[in-house]
Amino acid sequence: MRIWSLHPRYLDRQGLTAAWREALLAQAVLEGGTRGYTRHPQLERFRAEPDPREAIGDYLAVVADEASSRGYRFDRSKVHRRGDPTRRLEVTSGQLDLEWWHLRQRLAVRSPAIADRWADIATAEPHPLFIVVDGPIASWERAPAPPPQV
């Protein structure tokens, strides 16, 4: 499961669809509707919220908005709860940088034209649910760290 902290505009078609499916799975987990993935580390930041179900709903709504802007029709009725539109979860700069590196690696293989579109972006914008704070890679992250910059 990958719940990107990056703005969904950076995702290719496959990535956007996967983000939707994986966030729907996260919603099911947070609602107690599935037995799998209940201990998935990516859910820690949502569980830390006063209402995790609203937080994941807010996340899903932005993914659906991005899909709509591209002409896709994601079923918004699958977003069960929404919360305060001003809610922001923190994501560290280290986590965002790691995810940006990780996504660019995937895009280079799967969607080179999209990788080229974003090649000059050094620092990606976060998903609108998140606000960036200085800090290292999140403790819940399981992806390998990018190679050091030389």
TrEMBL record:
This is Pyrimidine dimer DNA glycosylase /DNA-(Apurinic or apyrimidinic site) lyase.
